[in-house]
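Record filed below.
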Amino acid sequence: GCPVCPDKYMYECTEGLLCYLKYNTATTFHTAGTCRMGSIDRPDVVVDPQLRVKYAKNLRVCDSSVFPVVPNSNTAAISITVGYKCSQFIKDCYDLK
């Protein structure tokens, strides 16, 4: 039964269900998308397409936080790819081969 409404099942009590959800849900997925990448002119963008942080000098973000949209899959492979691309951007910036 429901702790809020003992005479009902949990799914029949909106208040009980909301209470349950509030205290028993958590993410177990890979976090991503907290430093959105995109056109530097957009106000909701943190990093440009070369992974440079807006308004900061010599700072780049190279992990899953730059994803504009959170993928529906494991983020490991794409995060490794972002890191690799970032290393290429840095090498190009300093003419390193």
